[in-house]
Amino acid sequence: MGWITEDLIRRNAEHNDCIIFSLEELSLHQQEIERLEHIDKWCRDLKILYLQNNLIGKIENVSKLKKLEYLNLALNNIEKIENLEGCEVLTKLDLTMNFIGELSSIKTLKHNIHLQELFLMGNPCAYFDGYREFVVATLHQLKWLDGKEIERSERIQALQNYPVTEQQIREQEQAYCLKRAKEREEAQKKLQEEHGNVDKRSNPGFDGRWYTDINTPLSSLENKDHFQTPAIQVEEHNNKKLHDDEEDLEFWNKPCLFTPESRLETLRHVEKQRKDREKLSGKKKNMKPPRTLITDDGKVLNVNEPKYMDTSLIDVDVQPTYVRVMVKGKPFQLVLPAEVRPDSSSAKRSQTTGHLVVCMPKVEEVFTGSRPTSRSAKTTLDSSREQTKERSKNVEKLEVDPSKHSFPDVTTIVQEKRHAPRRLKSEPKIMPREEDPGFEDNPEVPPLI
To answer: Which of 71, 110, 76, 113 is CA-nearest to residue 93?
Structure first.
């Protein structure tokens, strides 16, 4: 069964940052609540309150909600309309599918002068002759009843026939009250009988044990209990399960009246089934054997179990021949195709995608490049010096066969090109003379200017 607690209200007040004193809207439907309490003290500013589909049997502890405008109590065990006079601005009230048989109790809603909508469909009083006329004539402020608008002509006619309608309603109420009294009495007897049968079945002997034969020695009974074979235990378990299934089928096929008591009985039966299933699953649940990661002969296996990646629960273990990632105790293990250096390995996880990246350099492998990382100037200088020293140490020499050794001619490697000296522009040009022995006058050559 459910109860209205502060924690329950805070969990349903997430839209208000879990603050309840300034809460204006609250939804507590389908919580198996039996009693309406604490809300008028903790949530004084409520305007909308949803309490449908619960087990509330009485309207109470809401009179201090002065700002309440809409109250939904559909699908509950309410039998009378009461304690709503303090809800001064109540405009809508939903009491669909309850057990209201005292239709005259709607007279208490006369004080709610702002009430415009009322829902009473599905209640026993909704099947009374003259039900709608009586409600329309009693509550003058109503504009809608069961989702249907109240016409002015309908109200005038209801007021004219009010004395006759009221007498009919009273007679039907009396008949219904007698019927309900018998139903309560029968339900009480049935409940007492069930409790009596349970007590008889659950009371053992003087020492807390069951005995069928008084001549049977105690030692033999103890030995029988201790040395019972697993096959017999399984058979007893199956018989018990079959018996429970038969009882459950009988309960659901048994005809019953739709009353508050029957709703409570159904809920208790469902709750009992749930607890039995939890006990049974707890007994069946066995500890799983530890996962085999490395066989007895030293062979490493590939293992992967489903898990939720949570950085705080990730443990990475890098070994020379395999890598293992543990998340919530579930392993992910891979055998590596080559030997790696665990001391130089690193594990990083992306804060955006959640990918886990494990870098494992191979043994005797030289990396020519890496991702740039932000380091200080001093660290960069030291690392460059170390790399220079390592390179100077690891100088490789080329060996040549002495028989094929020959000295190249250094003088012919580069040939010098003789260039004519540049003449200055100021130097006068030397023109050949006709008296020179090598001069030849070619008429086709234009004269030099």
So the answer is: 71
> Nearest-CA neighbor of 339 among 360, 367, 356, 325?
360
Alpha carbons 4 and 77: distance in angstroms, whole number: 16
- Strand 144-145, strand 148-149: pairing: antiparallel
Question: What is the pLDDT confidence band of residue 275, given thresholds at 50, 70 and 90?
Answer: confident
Higher pLDDT, 213 or 3: 3
Full 3-state SS string of 356-405:
EEEECCECCCCCCCCCCCCCCHHHHHHHHHHHHHHHHHCCCCCCCCHHHC
Q: Which residues contact 124 (CB under 8 A, 6 or more apart)?
A: 99, 100, 101, 176
Structure-token match 């604490």, residue found: 38
* Tens digits of residue pLDDT in 158-202: 999 999 999 999 999 999 999 988 988 888 887 787 766 655 555
User: Does residue 177 contact residue 185 with C-beta atoms inside 8 Å?
Assistant: no
Q: Which residue type sits at 116?
A: Q
Q: Kindly state the helix (H) or strand (E) to which residue 186 belongs, with its residue range.
A: helix 162-202
Q: How many CB atoms lie within 10 A of CB 79?
A: 22
**Cα-based distances in Å from 320 to 168, 242, 304, 357:** 94, 57, 19, 17
Angle at 141 between CA 138 and CA 147, to 5 degrees: 90
Half-sphere exposure of 356 (CA within 13 A, CB side): 17
Structure-token pair, residue 116: 């415009």
Q: Where are the alpha helices (DSSP H) in 146-301?
A: 152-160, 162-202, 218-226, 230-253, 260-284
- The dihedral over CA atoms of 46, 49, 54, 57, expressed in degrees to the nearest 10, equals 70
DSSP class of residue 288?
P
Q: Whole-prediction pTM value?
A: 0.54
Which is higher by pLDDT, 187 or 251?
Answer: 187
Site of tokens 């697993």:
230
- For residues 215 and 207, give the distance between their C-alpha atoms in angstroms, rounded to a whole number: 16
Q: What is the DSSP string of 7-51?
A: HHHHHT-GGGTT--TT--EEE-TTS-B----SHHHH-TT-SEEE-
Name the strand (E) or helix (H) holding 348. strand 346-349
Distance CA 139, CA 115 (A): 9
Degrees, nearest 5: CA angle 361-365-371: 55
Say which residues have a Cβ less than 8 Å from residue 116's Cβ, sequence separation at least 6.
91, 92, 141, 142, 143, 144
Per-residue model confidence as pLDDT tens digits over 429-443: 555 555 566 777 777
Closest-CA residue to 181 (of 64, 102, 297): 102
pLDDT confidence of residue 279: 76
First to last CA, the chain: 124
